[in-house]
């Protein structure tokens, strides 16, 4: 049926081959070889997209390696780099140069206030503030500023096991 249809609508068919799956059922693909070379191009123009049983038929032209047109020579690196589009993200991050930094109202010039460099971060705490927080956390008093000497640690034994006691005088 395929050979007859293409033979009547396009031209003389040399051979028509259907593709079958492992179960013996048709995969819906056929290869048609025409007697004339221009008949394939005519089939693509006239029958590609024509509906068969409600589904569009896809007609593709398959040619031999000798008939394929040569690929164009690749462009040089300089040509390809020059054609790269600019990044939209970079443009958004750049400050606009056309916007003035100062505005005038009734003859007076007002300058825009600069944002602080550490916006969103708390300011650094002093050593005294950090010490006070440590004392609050551990629940102790401020250490005295007296000089102490360290003695070697003495180990004692109790009936429940070994315990180490550190003494600082």
From TrEMBL:
Compositionally biased spans, kind Basic residues: 111-124
Cited InterPro entries: ALYREF_mRNA_export (IPR051229), FoP_C (IPR025715), Nucleotide-bd_a/b_plait_sf (IPR012677), RBD_domain_sf (IPR035979), RRM_dom (IPR000504)
Annotated Gene Ontology cellular component terms: nucleus
A Pfam entry, by short name: RRM_1
Chain segments carrying region Disordered: 69-169
Domain RRM: 1-64
Composition bias, Low complexity: 100-110, 142-159
Keyword vocabulary terms for this entry: RNA-binding
Gene Ontology molecular-function annotations: mRNA binding
UniProt name for this protein: RNA-binding RNA annealing protein
Gene source species: Saxophila tyrrhenica
Phylogenetic lineage: Eukaryota, Fungi, Dikarya, Ascomycota, Pezizomycotina
Gene that this sequence comes from: YRA1_2
């Amino acid at each position: 049926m395929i050979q007859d249809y293409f033979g009547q609508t396009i031209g003389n068919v040399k051979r028509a081959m259907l593709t079958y799956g492992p179960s013996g059922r048709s995969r819906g693909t056929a290869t048609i070889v025409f007697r004339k070379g221009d008949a394939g191009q005519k089939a693509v123009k006239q029958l590609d997209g024509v509906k068969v049983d409600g589904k569009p038929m896809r007609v593709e032209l398959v040619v031999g390696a000798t008939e394929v047109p040569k690929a164009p020579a690749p462009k040089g690196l300089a040509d390809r780099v020059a054609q790269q589009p600019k990044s939209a993200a970079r443009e958004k991050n750049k400050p606009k140069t056309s916007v003035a930094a100062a505005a005038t109202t009734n003859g007076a010039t007002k300058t825009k206030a600069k944002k602080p460099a550490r916006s969103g971060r708390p300011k650094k705490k002093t050593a005294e503030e950090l010490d006070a927080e440590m004392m609050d956390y551990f629940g102790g008093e401020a250490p005295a500023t007296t000089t102490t000497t360290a003695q070697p640690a003495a180990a004692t034994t109790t009936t429940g096991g070994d315990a180490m006691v550190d003494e600082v005088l």
